[in-house]
Amino acid sequence: MHGGPPLRMALLEGNLVRTYHIWTVGCQMNKADSERLGRELAGLGYHETDQMGKADVIVINSCSVRQNAENRVASRLGILRALKRDKPDCLIALMGCMVGQDQGELRRRFPHVDLFLPPQAFDALLDRLSEQQDAPAVDTSRADGSAVSRFVNIMHGCDNFCTYCIVPYRRGRERSRSIDEILCEVEGLVARGAKEIVFLGQNVDSYGKTLPGKPDLADLLRETNAVPGLLRIRFLTSHPRDMSTRLIQAVADLDKVCEYINLPVQAGDDEVLKAMRRGYYVDEYRALVRRIRAAMPEVGLTTDVIVGFPGERPEQFESTRALLEELRFDAVHVAVYSPRPGTIAARMVDDVPPEEKDRRLQVVERLQQTISMERHQELVGRTMEILVERQTGGKWEGRTRGNKLAFFRFDGDCLGQLVSVRITSASAWSLQGATDETNVFQPTSVPVRNVS
Ligand code: SAM
Ligand code: SF4
Ligand code: F3S
After folding, report:
1. Are residues 166 and 54 in the same domain?
2. Ligand nearest to the CA of 170
């Protein structure tokens, strides 16, 4: 007898099948790690459940980038304390960037956690589960999902040591994966239904430096562009100091590589950039944006900004605000500076008062909301290529090549397809559109060029 849906439901309801729940905070890297762990757990016969209280294995994949993120993890672990008391057999693991070399304090604060796993180091969990392997063999083919867009780590760690950032201390030194290994993973994901691959690294522009022959990201993109069945390729995150003309050219030339670049500026003042140890001047950043936009006039360009860095004076913040107004990004991820123990900036005086940090945050958010709205409004009336990723609330949801979220109605099934959508209205966050009755689909192997 096969484990079809009715049997699977019965097994789940009767709790004969072992289940896992992964709760994730942080960046796409963490999401990618959670997806990979999910695939491994499925391989051991575990089923995913969205009900944390019912799971046999609970993994909290944590982030340390700001105090806020750590607080959210701590409160989630607080909830689990009672759960562990009621259900001592459930296994709780804390994974990710909160788990550093010294785990003594974490062990004291969270005694109900069974395992502490540094970022990506989840073998200890898999070993523990394999040892107690009495889970029934179940159909795991669905557990891998058939998501249209998948993350692939192309490198680990970071060597930059920006003064405010905890990442290099938690994710270690920079290491690139080989092109062959990455292509093998990409081909496997495409075979399982993926249409878009998002390459991840803390500084993708330095991809390949640790590899023999020193290939670069442009080489990797060129090879990936030739993978049959794949429709789109994206990459995150770029570093303004390391972005090469060769890479810009590759993005402009390769048909599957989307014209979308996340280029964190962090601040619009040279003195602050120096204190952050970012390695570029504001004018160099401006020139880089000019070159990118000259090569790809409709590129989707986003940035990250930190407000209230130690010593940031009002006029220095004003330079940041003015730069954002001048460069008109498609989106800005803005955060209040949060001192991270162990980093260089944590030894500086955190002298911008919390209310002033918050004011600066709101100034940026309000400005960017207006800019995003205006940029989106410019697209109304245009027909754009959308890769459909899911159905939500009766509408299909996908993204433009420039990474803008778009929603539209369509009666058939267009999941995973490139659809021509006429934009009918826009907000600061997303686009709404309609399909053209006479010309619903673009041929999927020939993506439309020169669209935002
Ligand atoms: N590697 C990327 C880069 O160079 O920007 C992303 C690193 S980090 C995981 C993502 C964003 O978090 C950064 O761009 C920065 O704006 C923000 N961030 C990092 N450390 C921070 C801190 N201590 N306080 C506030 N924001 C921080
Ligand atoms: Fe952190 Fe800087 Fe590395 Fe980005 S480049 S992860 S901000 S140290
Ligand atoms: Fe990402 Fe947070 Fe770690 S942003 S790299 S999960 S500290």
Report:
1. no
2. 3
